[in-house]
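Researcher: Next entry: Dihydropteridine reductase (Parnassius apollo).
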Amino acid sequence: MASGRIVVYGGRGALGSACVNHFKQANCWVASIDLNPNDKADVNITVPKDASWLQQEEHVVKELGTALQGHKVNAVICVAGGWAGGNAAKDLSQQADLMWRQSVWSSTIAATLAAKYLSPGGLIALTGAKAALEGTPGMIGYGMAKAAVHQLTKSLGSKDSGLPENSLAVAIMPVTLDTEMNRKWMPKADFSTWTPLSFVAQLFDKWMKGNERPANGSLVALITKNNVTELVVQ
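Model: Predicted structure:
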């Protein structure tokens, strides 16, 4: 008997894989939603990359409904996303479009999944960015997309959002996550200021179980110094 049912949107990425692994080790049933399958998950829903926003949503909603067979989930965790730099002088719309697809499409589809399949008192967690609380001139498209995720989180955490009763909507705002790719591209950085993926997965687990939950609609910055991560709630 599974100890819970979890949906990880972006379950093939670095943080998503860490979440899938964590919840599988905790004896949970896990569905991964991504462009590519994660062989550790119980169910894989592959998003058609070239489909429209609405087509992607219809596909994911239908596939998850089939997989759940009438059951509800305890958490919908959206850690899909990506990064692109760039300012207004070059390819702004192109970069913004890419960031919107990766962060905003996935987050809104995750919200729809939560409205349909989340248990009362369940968790929907999205992924924002601390940088997007201010101007991001060197990565405008990224900042726009993450700011939209922040707004979505606050809306989901408000009355009449359409989510189940007593559910928690929250967004994490990492500064830098300790991933293989980040270490590859920033080999001389101070890794003691990077947030471990295992910390984030454990945080989602804690919130899913109702422990130390922030207020509904919170934006939670993950500030790591000397290998210790502090939560700063906005």
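Model: Note for the record: The chain has a mean pLDDT of 96.
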